[in-house]
Design brief:
The chain is about 30% helix and about 0% strand. With about 130 residues, it is mostly helical. The protein folds into 2 domains: about 5-45; about 55-134, no CATH class. Helix 1 runs antiparallel to helix 2 (about 30-45). The longest helix is centred in the N-terminal third of the chain and has 19 residues, at about 5-20. Bound molecules: zinc ion. Zinc ion binds near residues 97 and 100.
């Protein structure tokens, strides 16, 4: 993260802290809260962990080429939150899915299909996922 973005995110974090803490119920303590926030940001080292979305197997791929293809499997893929249609061919015995997605549940596939996306999909570990594109 370059210095510009670091400062930008730092200021945003500081402002968000004020927005959350300076609510009406705390109005008598505004000065103390502002002082504590300043103290926190001047006495602590703030670091941000960058999340790289294009490393190793976690690569975002442009899936426009597979969009709404009737001869392709209709299961959605995660694609690091960007979604997209499965690139495999649909199998005539698999109700519009490829063999893999048919075997993994077909219409009960955890991410849904191009026709019906699951808005808050939950993976096999119970983790709720949020799509990047709403
Ligand atoms: Zn598939």
């Amino acid at each position: 993260m370059n210095k510009y973005y670091f400062e930008f995110v730092l200021q945003k974090l500081k402002q968000d802290s004020k927005d959350v803490l300076l609510i009406e119920e705390n109005s008598e303590n505004t000065d103390i809260i502002l002082k504590e926030i300043e103290l926190y940001f001047t006495t602590n080292t703030i670091t941000f962990n960058e999340v790289c979305i294009s490393s190793g197997t976690h690569q975002v791929r442009n899936r426009d080429a597979y969009q709404d293809k009737v001869n392709k499997c209709k299961a959605l893929v995660w694609n690091e939150g960007y979604g997209g249609q499965c690139s495999r061919s649909s199998n005539s015995d698999c109700n519009g899915f490829c063999k893999t997605h048919f075997r993994k549940g077909g219409h009960d596939w955890w991410l849904g299909t191009v026709e019906q996306r699951i808005e808050r999909p939950v993976d096999s570990n119970g983790k709720i996922h949020y799509w990047i594109k709403e």
